[in-house]
Amino acid sequence: MSLNQLIENCKINDTKAQGELYKLFSSKLFSICLKYSRNYAEAEDNLQDAFLTIFNKVEQYKHKGSFEGWMKRITVNTVLQRYRNEKVFDIVNENSIEEVEVDIEEDNFSIDYLLQIIQELPDRYRLVFNLYVLDGYSHKDIADMLDINVGTSKSNLARARQILKKNIEDYKLSQSLQSL
């Protein structure tokens, strides 16, 4: 069955088609959920919520643009919706933001370690860092998505970078001490 036929069958609440769509895209969408969630269990809940939203809104998809991209946007918005209501963001003055560069020598770190330290960031920092650095959203887009101001987005990114830089420096130090 083609993807277009699957979509059309999902529009008439065909549970078999919904199951197929879930099988096709759940791993990709789960990786998005994991990136923005606090932990694995929350990511699983967010994936289920995202698919419920996808199935409820599939009739709105008009076969214009990528269906996968449409589902990814719904997934990101589903996860971010949890945080919008929790007031995890502090309002800051945009003039007090300092840029922090994080120096990562790629051969010294596993991708798992980097993902782990990103996952351990406080919610507000992790969300902005992922949206800006990993997904390429602008601060204006992030501000709109999270219902915060642009200065708050910039501040949270700078703070995330500071924390990551400290964690990486601590890691480098522990590695050099182990090699002595």
List the helices and strands and how they pair.
Blueprint: H1 3-11, H2 15-36, H3 40-57, H4 67-84, H5 111-119, H6 123-134, H7 139-146, H8 150-178
Helix pairs in contact: 1-2, 2-3, 2-4, 3-4, 6-8, 7-8
Question: Mind explaining what this structure looks like?
Answer:
The chain has 180 residues and is mostly helical. The chain has two domains: 82 residues, Rna Polymerase Sigma Factor, Chain: A, CATH 1.10.1740.10; 85 residues, Arc Repressor Mutant, subunit A (Orthogonal Bundle). Helices cover 69% and strands 0% of the residues. The chain is built from eight helices and no strands. The longest helix has 29 residues. The chain is elongated and about 65 Å long. It starts with a helix and ends with a helix.
Helices and strands, in N-to-C order? HHHHHHHH
Average of per-residue pLDDT values: 85
- CATH homolog superfamily of the largest domain: Winged helix-like DNA-binding domain superfamily/Winged helix DNA-binding domain
- CATH fold-level name of the largest domain: Arc Repressor Mutant, subunit A
| Low-pLDDT segments, ≥5 res | 91-98
Which structural class do the helices and strands define? mainly alpha
Which word captures the global form? elongated
N/C terminus separation: 60 Å
Strand content: under 5%
Q: Write down the CATH class of the largest domain.
A: Mainly Alpha
Tell me the total number of β-strands. Answer: 0
Number of helices: 8
Largest sheet: none
Rg over alpha carbons: 19 Å
Q: Considering DSSP H and I runs of 4 or more, what fraction of the residues is helical?
A: 55-70%
Q: Any idea how many domains?
A: 2
CATH architectural category of the largest domain: Orthogonal Bundle
GO molecular function: DNA binding; sigma factor activity
Domain RNA polymerase sigma-70 region: 21-87
Organism: Seonamhaeicola marinus
Keywords: Sigma factor, Transcription, Transcription regulation
